[in-house]
Design brief:
Radius of gyration: 35 Å
Number of strands: 15
Structural class: alpha/beta
Strand order of the largest sheet: 11-10-9-12-13-14
Number of helices: 20
Largest sheet: 6 strands, mixed
Strand content: 5-15%
Oligomer: single chain
Helix content: 25-40%
Length: 603
């Protein structure tokens, strides 16, 4: 019977019912307490166009099974292995959006120059771990889908290659005897499960056997560390991938979704470590040079230890942007990176407390006497006292006394931040900028306290970008913070003066504002150097009128910071030359600059 005839003869309602009935058994493979909604099943009544017979959606947190492809592959009678495998993507690998992002990033590092293939290679890696786990611990025959589909495809040579073709999937222009990445992959399954040679793939050559052996051992070493083993897996598979100009990679199933979720990876510098090829990893290859220490072999139960190959590199905003592009995420990677790095260093931001406001309170009525102010006369009370109005006898007046308010009014100190984006400063979207990270600490700390913030990026005259009026829109403020002009250095003193000049230094009806500047040695232009005449004292006047103090966060050496202090007046100067200095900045803000004792009360 041809595939078309078999598809036409299927009882789709009965098939879907059988697969739904197998769902509890598939859940049981991962533990009796696991709860997960039933998958979605696609039948001929649904629109065509799927590229796999099964996938797991990270956004919907559910699996989808295309029963049409299942029938074409001839695996309609083995629902439990297929369903249990999809559950494994939720339980074991990648588990969530962060896990998927970490695995894809490590695969991207291992592939070196094949970023577009990282998602599919990561799927192959997680499939390998899940299938091996289900075979060893649950006793499922995970070869059944491969065997059944192989028989079906081999019997129907005229059918187009499916998304789960487990035959020798050679690329266009390659001789049929040349091994592919999927041949190595299937041979690793034979070695993992002690299957006779040729059970899943025709016999391979010596080189292919060596790599398949490394792959099988690698899967066991990193059985409980999907992220740690992803880079080595990709490095091994890179050699066997088809040329980028050929047909794209295809795998048994795939993981989708998660593009709109911000994975929590920005602070994980281990993602920037160099991947170790399994042939060079002493935990996988006993002939490889031992690295010692953290690179010692993994534990006997298959839990891998740290690779010991830390490069000391920082997983920067450009790396996160590349990862987002690979995942298809449209979020602003630089904003996510600086927010994630700054949130651990947030500082207490000052909040002013006003004296409780006194309010008039009616105490009662008393006689209005001749000679009293006529406006004090309470006619309602007078007419209630007597229908006859006799001045000084029946006339009444209200007795009002001031009642002290109970709740003081909180006024967080606002933040006016000026960011130097001249050519001497690094582009914070491409390179890690400790000074901009310090600015992010200030912005997020102010927003957490309920303050309003304005961010102005400046460079040459006319190259000034502002977030607008004082506000609380975090994304808009962070976007302004990360704006880069790359021109000369000329502080916008006119803008600073317009924002704060002319305001009285002490006034109970307004909120204080803290002035902060992120720059390097070009901050000298803030104190009149190269500016118009008469602006030499504009920064000092603005500081006095703003009333909330000022801070200069400078990307300079300590000796340059000392020289700047001589001209900065009442501005506090903080040198931030490296990432570790951000911790010092936060400590100084908490202990020295901000008043962390009793909060200041406006009089």
């Amino acid at each position: 019977m041809t595939v078309t005839a078999r598809v036409d003869a299927v009882d789709w309602v009965g098939l879907e019912s059988r697969w739904r009935a197998a769902w509890p058994a598939a859940l049981e493979c991962w533990g009796p307490s696991l709860r997960l909604g039933e998958p979605r099943f696609l039948t001929p009544a649904d629109p065509p166009g799927t590229t796999s017979f099964a996938w797991f959606d990270m956004d919907a947190v559910g699996a989808t099974i295309d029963l049409r492809a299942v029938v074409r592959l001839g695996i309609e009678d083995i629902p439990v292995p297929v369903l249990a495998h999809e559950i494994g993507h939720h339980v074991l690998a990648p588990a969530d959006a962060t896990g998927r992002a970490c695995i894809v990033e490590r695969c991207r590092r291992g592939l070196v120059d094949r970023d577009a293939d990282a998602p599919m290679v990561s799927n192959l890696w997680t499939d390998l771990l899940i299938n091996d786990r289900l075979t060893r611990l649950s006793g499922l025959d995970m070869t059944a889908p491969y065997r059944a589909s192989r028989r079906t495809v081999a019997a129907q040579q005229a059918e187009p290659a499916s998304a789960v073709d487990t035959t020798r999937s050679t690329g266009r222009g390659k001789p049929p005897t040349e091994a592919t990445y999927f041949d190595i992959y299937l041979r690793a399954y034979e070695l993992l499960w002690s299957l006779p040679r040729g059970s899943l793939v025709p016999p391979l050559g010596a080189e292919e056997e060596v790599d398949a052996g490394f792959l099988a051992r690698h899967a066991r070493v990193f059985a409980r560390d999907a992220v740690g083993g992803a880079g080595g897996f990709a490095a091994l598979m890179r050699r066997w991938l088809p040329d980028p100009t050929e047909a794209g990679l295809q795998g048994p199933c795939r993981v989708t979704g998660g593009a709109g979720t911000a994975p929590d990876v920005a602070e994980d510098d281990s993602l920037a470590d160099l991947p170790v090829h399994p042939a060079l990893d002493p935990r996988v290859n006993s002939q490889a040079p031992a690295s010692g220490g953290a690179g010692a072999p993994g534990t006997a139960d298959g839990e891998a230890q740290d690779t010991g190959q830390g490069s000391g590199q920082v997983f920067g905003p450009a790396d996160l942007a590349t990862l987002y592009a690979t995942l298809g995420t449209t979020r602003d990677a630089a904003v996510d990176w600086y927010v994630a790095r700054a949130r651990r260093h947030l500082v207490p931001f000052p909040v002013d407390h006003e004296q409780p406001v006194s309010e008039p309170e009616l105490q009662g009525l008393e006689t209005w006497e001749l000679g009293d102010d006529l406006t004090d006369l309470d006619w309602t009370g007078t007419t209630l006292r007597s229908a006859t109005v006799l001045p000084g006898m029946t006339t009444q007046r209200r007795v009002v006394e001031a009642a002290e308010g109970l709740d003081p009014v909180e006024r967080p100190v606002d933040l006016d931040l000026y960011v130097d984006s001249s050519g001497s400063m690094p582009d914070p979207r491409g390179l890690v900028s400790p000074a901009v990270l310090g600015g992010a600490v200030l912005v997020l700390s102010a927003l957490r306290a309920g303050a309003r913030v304005r961010v102005t990026s400046w460079s040459s005259p006319g190259q000034v970008t502002s977030s607008g009026d004082l506000g609380t829109d975090r994304d808009r403020l962070m976007t302004a913070l990360l704006t880069y002009h790359g021109g000369g250095t000329s502080f916008p003193l006119h803008g600073l003066a317009a924002a704060h000049d002319g305001l009285p230094a002490a006034r109970s009806t307004r909120r204080r504002c803290h002035i902060a500047v992120i720059s390097d040695d070009g901050v000298e232009s803030m104190f009149g150097r190269g500016q118009d005449a008469g602006l030499e004292t504009a920064a000092a006047r603005a500081l006095e009128h703003a009333g909330g103090g000022g801070t200069l966060v400078l990307r300079v050496a300590p000796q340059v910071a000392e020289r700047t202090r001589t001209m900065a007046g009442d501005y506090v100067v903080e040198a931030v030359a490296g990432l570790d200095d951000v911790v010092t900045l936060a400590r100084h803000f908490a202990r020295r600059h901000w008043d962390t004792g009793p909060r200041r009360t406006l009089r």
